[in-house]
């Protein structure tokens, strides 16, 4: 089923998303990869204020290319998500509700998603140029020294993503694998 949702990603919106749902996401999201995640978690560990409000927010695991003329952002394909697995549970505890990336997540992250009512979306790897066209504005919020991995605030319109792991822990990757294995028996 295709759903149109707009950030902030509230608990009520999250609970209605199911593994396998196609989503067109609009609103404000943030970009961050592993170096930025480490800095955010270091701030949490020392009790300092985060430079972004993660409550009901979505973080896209991406290091976009520079914008071409007339574009807000360049190519913006997803980063492999497991690189953020060591940091994600602490951000989920702070109220993060959505993560966008590609690939599998650890059981610790899935358990934290269930506990905190969050969802994991996949963006299509290899479709970075198309995804970049969904970005209407982009500004660096913090960690400019990280270059393409700086945290950016993006305004997106109809960003195409798929719910891979929902807030109940249903996992599209496992469902697809199981369906395939059943079909070849």
TrEMBL record:
It comes from the Bacteria. InterPro entries: Fe-S_hydro-lyase_TtdB-typ_cat, Fe-S_hydroAse_TtdB_cat_sf. One of its GO terms (molecular function) is hydro-lyase activity. Residues 7-175 form the Fe-S hydro-lyase tartrate dehydratase beta-type catalytic domain. Keywords: Lyase. PANTHER family: L(+)-TARTRATE DEHYDRATASE SUBUNIT BETA, L(+)-TARTRATE DEHYDRATASE SUBUNIT BETA-RELATED. Belongs to the class-I fumarase family. This is Hydro-lyase, Fe-S type, tartrate/fumarate subfamily, beta region. It comes from Clostridium tagluense. The lineage of its organism: Bacteria, Bacillati, Bacillota, Clostridia, Eubacteriales.
């Amino acid at each position: 089923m295709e759903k149109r949702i707009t950030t902030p990603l509230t608990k009520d919106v999250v609970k209605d998303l199911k593994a396998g749902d196609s989503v067109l996401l609009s609103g404000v999201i943030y970009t961050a990869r592993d170096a930025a995640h480490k800095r955010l978690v270091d701030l949490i560990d020392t009790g300092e204020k985060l430079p972004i409000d993660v409550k009901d927010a979505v973080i896209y695991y991406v290091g976009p290319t520079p914008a071409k003329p007339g574009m807000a952002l360049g190519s913006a394909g997803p980063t492999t998500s497991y690189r953020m697995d060591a940091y994600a549970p602490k951000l989920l505890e702070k109220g993060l509700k959505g993560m966008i990336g590609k690939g599998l997540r650890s059981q610790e992250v899935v358990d934290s998603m269930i506990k905190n009512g969050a969802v994991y979306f996949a963006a299509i790897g290899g479709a970075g140029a198309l995804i970049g066209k969904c970005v209407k504005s982009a500004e660096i919020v913090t960690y400019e020294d990280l270059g393409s991995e700086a945290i950016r605030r993006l305004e997106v319109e109809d960003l195409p993503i798929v719910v891979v792991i929902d807030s109940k822990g249903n996992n599209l990757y496992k469902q697809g694998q199981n369906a395939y294995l059943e079909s070849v028996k």
